[in-house]
């Protein structure tokens, strides 16, 4: 336990990261797919008789696109960095050390993206047609390059493949089993997002209904590749998931807090249903562009936000109880450490650096074990509520359950002695208003604390 | 005997030698609905800055459709003779049972919310005035039936939360003057909430109320189709060239589809994040769980009545009863088009009622 714990009441640190990340993912996908949309629309406009009108509309698209992606995208992107290092410093450290050049490339890509987009947008009047098309294309290539890099790191966390702490093979970790299906799925979703954004801007065209309908149909077509190809790619993606994740999913179709991790199942279906609804909505709009309203177009965009929520939560939950699958648990316990009986049997707080001195078997003893081993995933009374999950506990039952919780497949092993387990169980039961008698033990838990 | 196709229909139908022409003529010779078709085709919806509120009724209908589908699925496994066990089975054993139950629960809540918004938006647009009094009254009835739907469905899982909340809810009904005691006994099937109450609530929830609500929805939609969508005063006062309309079929309806889909996705999202739990089985002899409260749509009434304990409870009852009485009588009290002083006063009373409702609901939720 080398780092202090980021304790966020009600939400929990993990959910804070998730909220920021889900918003960021939508913007990031639009930022890339919108680039492809700009490039193709630029080329398309040159082949149409009313090319100037299309470009005038494209200018509006680019204005909203630039503001939305560079402001909100940048803010949430930095937000992710800020929050993950606090929520999981051990995991962030591993990712930085392992993929230091990938991160460096990613940041260069990001700077390149911003630079080219500004050149494209502010050079609208001055640049030649050829230059504008080149800049739009260059923007897309650079932006997609950033996906190429970050996708390696994201998929590594769930499917590290042949990578191990001993080999630390960058290429095996980067081009892991989930890399290519994920890259292709995300690319198609990006096109979809570019099109959905196009529909929103197109619904604001006033006066010329024929032109408005053409642009709406052009934008709606961008949803089509994702609708047709993604179902097949999902089969591929599914085949790369760890067997334990697939088993969790199968067992999760039943039970409120009853299946092993039925939330995995629920978020999966949220993503699937949202995707289906977007395709359905885009079809309606493509068939009846006259009926497309700004509210309806924004509604489709919001569905995409729900879809991202489902998909990203699924991806995060699919690797439970790890933050890096089979390597590092969500509460910063290394898998190889968990296999060392001597280490796991040591008094837990003696290994924890960021905690006060506490009396053994006191309520503070139990509370600090809760803080250091549980709050990275659970809050007491809100998100993934520990209180709700332990309503029926007795101190003895809790102690026994903690000893074997790892066998459920979704919890890390408990770190510490029987005394630690009893202290945590007593504290939990006491939080439900039960009176737990503290044994009279004097002295303090030694070592570590600051 | 075949019906004759009207001359104006002949002019507009596709050529008789095409497939669609043949099919449409075949249909019109059996069902003389050309006039109805023309009427519906000419139906328009005003387009103005408050047009978004016209979507609320359709949204409530969407959630109702979800309710019917998920409700039928839940009925397959629900057993009124062993309510809690069967719900537990739905949740723990039936594949996707927990998700379907959560969606049923949340769409009921969202339907009630959409109806609340629909009720107040039509109120503030003064859509209850002549000639739409019966559209308004049928809508008010729909709202009341929806609340009874919510109340009756809440008991069906037979967990302790449901049991004690229902007991408290029926006790409130008991206090109503004249018919209160009789109604309460009728609902409970005796002086106490027992498994006999389940039988009554179940019959009410899956048979009586669905038939009732479908009839009223049919009437409500029929009135809207016949009388058209109302225009608020500011829109009606515009010169004809400044008024914009869109066709109900199919621009307005198609435009609603993405919004329905978005609400569908929201519904699944809420159900994914907050699945409906199941408390321990009801124990009529056990103590009530701490802080027991009714569902959010009864909270304002609950909180208001708490302010009038004991002997002055009747005062609270009287104050609350003013709301349904006001809803039922407003089309006959406020009739002037455009609104006169009385109409403006009614709007102000509506604003106070809405703020009061929100205040008491939040207060009830927090206290």
Please sum up the structure shown:
The complex is a heterodimer of chains A (450) and B (367). Chain A is mainly α and 450 residues long.
Structural class based on helices, strands and sheet pairing of chain A: mainly alpha
- Strand tally of chain B is 2
- Structural class based on helices, strands and sheet pairing of chain B: mainly alpha
Q: Tell me, rounded to a whole number, the average pLDDT of chain A.
A: 91
Strand percent estimate of chain A: under 5%
Overall 3D shape of chain B: globular
Tally of separate domains of chain B: 2
Cα radius of gyration of chain A in angstroms: 25 Å
What value does the Rg of chain B take, in angstroms? 24 Å
Q: Care to describe what's here?
A:
The complex is a heterodimer of chains A (450) and B (367). Chain A is built from 18 helices and two strands. By secondary structure, chain A is mostly helical. Chain A has two domains: 13-329; 340-431, Cytochrome Bc1 Complex, Chain D, domain 2, CATH 1.10.760. In chain A, a hairpin with a 3-residue loop joins strand 1 and strand 2. Chain B folds into two domains: 1-38, no CATH class; 51-290, Cytochrome Bc1 Complex, Chain C, CATH 1.20.810.10. Chain B has a two-stranded antiparallel sheet. The longest helix of chain B is centred in the middle third of the chain and has 33 residues, at 195-227. The chains are: A mainly alpha (450), B mainly alpha (367). Chains A and B meet through helix 11 and helix 12 of A and helix 6 and helix 12 of B.
């Amino acid at each position: 336990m080398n780092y202090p714990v980021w304790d966020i009441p009600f939400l929990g640190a993990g959910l804070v990261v998730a909220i920021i990340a889900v918003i960021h993912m939508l913007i990031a996908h639009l930022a890339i797919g919108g680039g492809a949309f700009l490039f193709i629309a630029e080329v398309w406009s040159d082949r149409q008789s009313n090319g100037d009108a299309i470009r005038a509309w494209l200018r509006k698209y680019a204005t909203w696109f630039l503001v939305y992606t560079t402001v909100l995208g940048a803010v949430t992107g930095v937000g992710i960095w800020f929050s993950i290092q606090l929520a999981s410093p051990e995991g962030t450290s591993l990712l930085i050390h392992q993929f230091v050049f990938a991160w460096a490339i990613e940041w260069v890509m990001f700077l390149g993206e911003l630079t080219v987009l500004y050149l494209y947008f502010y050079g609208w009047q001055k640049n030649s047609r050829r230059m504008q098309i080149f800049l739009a294309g260059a923007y897309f290539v650079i932006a997609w390059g950033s996906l190429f890099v970050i996708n390696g790191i994201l998929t590594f966390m769930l499917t590290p493949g042949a990578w191990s702490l001993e080999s630390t093979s960058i290429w095996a970790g980067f081009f892991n089993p989930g890399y290519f299906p994920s890259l292709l799925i995300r690319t198609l979703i990006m096109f979809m997002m570019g099109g959905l954004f196009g529909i929103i801007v197109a619904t604001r065209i006033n006066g010329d209904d024929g032109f408005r309908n053409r642009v709406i149909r052009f934008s709606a077509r961008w949803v089509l590749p994702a609708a047709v190809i993604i179902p097949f790619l999902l089969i591929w993606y599914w085949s790369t998931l760890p067997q334990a994740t697939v088993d969790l999913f199968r067992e999760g179709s039943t039970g409120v807090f009853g299946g092993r991790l039925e939330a995995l199942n629920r978020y999966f279906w949220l993503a699937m249903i949202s995707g289906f609804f977007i395709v359905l909505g885009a079809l309606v709009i493509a068939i009846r562009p006259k009926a497309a309203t700004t509210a309806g177009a924004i509604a489709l965009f919001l569905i995409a936000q729900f879809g991202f929520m489902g998909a990203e939560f699924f991806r995060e939950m699919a690797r439970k109880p790890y933050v890096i699958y089979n390597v590092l648990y969500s509460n910063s316990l290394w898998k190889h450490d968990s296999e060392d009986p001597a280490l796991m049997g040591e008094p837990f707080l003696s290994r924890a650096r960021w905690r006060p001195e506490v009396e053994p078997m006191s309520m503070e003893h139990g509370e600090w074990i809760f803080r250091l081993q549980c709050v990275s995933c659970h809050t007491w009374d809100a998100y993934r509520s520990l209180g709700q999950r332990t309503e029926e506990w007795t101190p003895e039952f809790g102690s026994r359950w903690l000893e074997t919780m790892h066998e459920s497949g979704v919890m890390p092993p408990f770190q510490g002695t029987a005394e630690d387990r009893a202290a945590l169980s007593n504290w939990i039961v006491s939080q439900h208003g039960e009176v737990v008698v503290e044994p009279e033990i004097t002295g303090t838990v030694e070592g570590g604390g600051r | 005997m075949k019906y004759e196709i009207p001359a104006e229909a002949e002019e507009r139908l596709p050529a008789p030698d095409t497939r669609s022409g043949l099919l449409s003529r075949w249909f019109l010779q059996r069902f003389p609905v050309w006039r109805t078709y023309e009427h519906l085709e000419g139906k328009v919806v005003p387009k103005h800055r408050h047009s978004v509120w016209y979507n609320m009724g359709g949204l409530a209908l969407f959630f109702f459709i979800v309710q019917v589908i998920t409700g039928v699925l839940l009925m397959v496994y629900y057993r009124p003779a062993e309510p809690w066990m069967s719900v537990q089975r739905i949740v723990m054993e039936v594949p996707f049972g927990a998700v379907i139950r959560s969606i049923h629960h949340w769409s009921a809540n969202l339907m009630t919310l959409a109806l609340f918004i629909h009720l107040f938006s039509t109120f503030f647009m003064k859509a209850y005035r002549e000639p739409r009094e019966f559209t308004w009254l049928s809508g008010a009835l729909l709202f009341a039936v929806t609340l009874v739907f919510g109340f009756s469905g809440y008991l069906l899982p037979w967990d302790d939360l449901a049991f004690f909340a229902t007991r408290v809810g029926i006790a409130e009904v008991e206090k109503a003057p004249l018919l209160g005691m009789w109604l309460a006994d009728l609902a409970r099937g005796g002086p106490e909430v027992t498994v006999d109450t389940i039988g009554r609530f179940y019959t009410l929830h899956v048979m009586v109320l669905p038939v009732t609500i479908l009839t009223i929805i049919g009437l409500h939609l029929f009135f809207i189709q016949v009388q058209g969508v109302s225009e608020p005063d500011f829109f009606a006062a515009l010169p004809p060239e400044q008024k914009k309309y869109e066709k109900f079929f199919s621009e307005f309806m198609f435009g609603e589809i993405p919004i329905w889909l978005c609400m569908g996705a929201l519904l699944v999202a809420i159900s994914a994040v907050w699945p409906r739990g199941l408390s321990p089985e009801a124990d009529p002899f056990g103590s009530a769980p701490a802080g027991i409260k009714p569902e959010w749509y009864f909270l304002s009434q609950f909180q208001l009545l708490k302010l009038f304990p004991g002997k002055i409870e009747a005062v609270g009852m009287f104050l609350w009863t003013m709301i349904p009485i006001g809803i039922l009588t407003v089309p006959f009290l406020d009739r002037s088009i455009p609104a006169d002083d009385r109409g403006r006063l009614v709007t102000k009373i509506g604003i106070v009622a809405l703020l009061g409702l929100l205040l008491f609901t939040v207060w009830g939720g927090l206290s």
